[in-house]
Amino acid sequence: MAVDAKICGLTRPEDAALAVRIGVHRLGVIFAGGPREVTVATAARIVAVADGVPVIGVFGTHAAPEIVAIALAAGLRGVQLHGVGPPERAERLRDAGLEVWGVATASRLDDLPPAIATARHAADVVLVEPRLPGGSGGRGVALPPSLVRAARAALPGIRFALAGGLTAETVAEAIRVGAPDLVDVSSGVESGPGVKDPDRLARFLEIVRDTRPAA
Question: Global pTM?
């Protein structure tokens, strides 16, 4: 089974264009705060160089109408939903034709079942990442292998994306252990917040392309 890759936290069109040339499957831009947050205009410039590769917008507690308006203005193809929102929010976004990523955060095994139950509602993809103080990702913290395996087992029949602490040095083992459908990286391919390092980016995507989950 081939594993797809998403490069998230993009702030520069040139980084997005490089990722597309190398063979990325999804690109991500952030509207949920933090050092990688972009404007709608910057997101639109990233979409313009994506050459058809879907660009996913990362949102917090934004209401569905606001998310749809931003998606239309920037040309986003999907949304990644962090923060707490009403269950019907994901349904409305999916009805608007957007690919919906639900996000489940966990710091221990007991966290997973309720987090996944919420995240998978009307979702096309469930992304599982560490639960961190302050709630923001992009800090290079990985899920322990036990949680990665448990997340895979808890998500039969739905696409499982893994995020948190992934780098060229760690992603192969994460794929072998957890058999995710997608891996999502931001800080692990950067030279600074929002600035992707070409060598790290190329190496990460090369390893993802060449690694298969353990049988």
Answer: 0.94
